[in-house]
Amino acid sequence: NAGTCGFQGPANIGNCPTADSTWQNLFDIGANYLNKFGDFTVALYGAFAYADFVPAFATGIGSNIVTGANLAPWKQWVVGAQFGFAGFTVGGAAGWDNNGLGANYYTGIDNDTRFYTAGIMYETGPWQMSFMWAGFYNTNGNGSASVTALNTQSGFFAQTLNTAAATGVPGVNSTAFNGNPQTSLLFGSETVTKWEVGANYALGPGVKITGGAVMFMAGGPSNAVSGSSWAFLLGMDLRF
What we know:
By secondary structure, the chain is mainly β. It is built from no helices and eleven strands. The strands form two sheets. It has a nine-stranded antiparallel beta sheet with strand order 1-2-3-4-5-6-9-10-11, with no helix packed on it. The mean pLDDT is 89.
């Protein structure tokens, strides 16, 4: 019976429509405060989100016995502020996200991401200029696998990870934790930093020329989580 939940034998493992290793019963709450004192503007906000994780009856779904990674209730929070005066607007935010992951079974370290943002914008006449920075820092309790091969023949970037060759008994003598780069996970914080700078000029009502640059830098203990990218942007904003 596809509507029956509860373990009733091997034939019923996949028949429960709700116990399917997904996040359920999500709730999200937020509040903000907006005010103006003369020419000085204030905006404050905060939010929190939570979702239950409901595992399936089948073993191995929602967790990895080899690496110790496992799924858990998803939790997030964020707070921020923005102030404006004399053409300047400055703001920032801080937040936390457990990414729906529990602490690693073997390392005991979580996989939480803490993030921070800050920005400033200045407007004068037809000009508007801004700069933004954001930093994301993950504790990486699950460790980082390394890419040993990359297959692009199928049109997709199929990666081969070093942990695919790991052997041994999980939690006892697994080579996924022995420090050998051929098979082992690598530990240390994973980070992503982003910078944005931009400007636009109003040619007339509903018409702006826009331009800017974006740069990303990712860092971590393995080649799978390290890299950088950048882009220059130029365009026009038309609104009717």
